[in-house]
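Q: Start with the shorter request: fold the first protein.
A: Done. Sequence, then structure:
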Amino acid sequence: MGAAVAFVREQDQTYRQAGEGTAREASDRARGDTSAGRERLGRGQGDGGAGQAAPPRPTLVPPVDSGPDPRLDPTSAHQALLTLAARRAADDVAMLEPLLVAHEGRIHEALGLGSFHEYCSRLFGWCGRTTRERLRVAKAMRDLPAMRARWAAGELTYSVVRELTRVATPAVEAD
């Protein structure tokens, strides 16, 4: 867990240098929550700037979308969506192990959060039920490598995998 705490501290330092405050505060602002946790952190209410406008925040990750594309026809839109669906499936699979390690390592405690559900809510916008389901699926995928590979290849969607993991076992997967 020491590496995770070091990573979080490094991220907080990056946000501070960029004028963002801490990573948690940047996450709060991204969600539109400007007062979350201030009482607990001893910062009180208000922006401390006596009515001054906050400086513009730099974008740490460039946006992927460049706006409407007038050259996009329905066929190319379909192809773009197919590509994005495959990428999303691969990203969902890539998230499995880090999600389990963060949960098992109780990273939320190192960050001063009340629960892993709160951690996922702040990071991904997930509700408690979504967090529980994602963790359940991630645990099941450890024992189902063929299904995991098909999901990563974009042949299965998360909703299909979620339902299959309710009944699938390593013995059944071989069939």
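Q: Next, the second protein, separately.
A: Sequence, then structure:
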Amino acid sequence: MELYTLKNTSGLFFGGHFVELLDKIWWTKKSKIEAEKRLLANAFQAQILLLWYSFVSVAASIHYLKFNAQSEYAGISWVLFSILILCISGFINGLGYKERAALVKDSYEALQKLHDQEKYNPSNPSNPFDLANKYEKILSICENHSNIDYYLALCKAYLHKSELDRKPTLYIWFFVIWYKIKRILLLVIFYLILPALVFLYTGA
């Protein structure tokens, strides 16, 4: 993944490799912040989705018992839907969004501390190899961030910082916009369309 360099870095006189590594640490930190946000958002939406599906399942069961007890497909359809909820619940628990987000947070906080120690201590800089080893050790704390995390970090930094020497490409802007649109469409499908299709199929 290509990393962009910040202008006016206080450690320019340390040498190109040192500055490049500091920038790499900074961008990794920013990307991991976006990764944590993504994982926490997924955890929140997953929990709300399970609550919504559980409510829909109970409401549908009450509806059929009260108003449409003779429906040929209602019973089996909502039993399958309830099984689907259990499967989704187990799958979501297996993904461990909150636990992964906590590890990502530990990682970017350690990266922030490492970056500040090196950037604001120009009188006693670390050897670039030692700094690289510290960086690699912190990376091993958690999973790597995804491309979309980096793209989001880059776009947000561009909107709030004037000292970036490169701009997000049109491809990156398109990728971020499409990601946002796709996420909204998926939420609409999961929250509204899927339960509606089950209701229509069972003749509610």
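Q: Describe the second briefly.
A: Confidence is low (pLDDT under 50) at residues 1-14. The helical segments are 16-67, 74-95, 97-119, 128-139, 147-160, 170-202.
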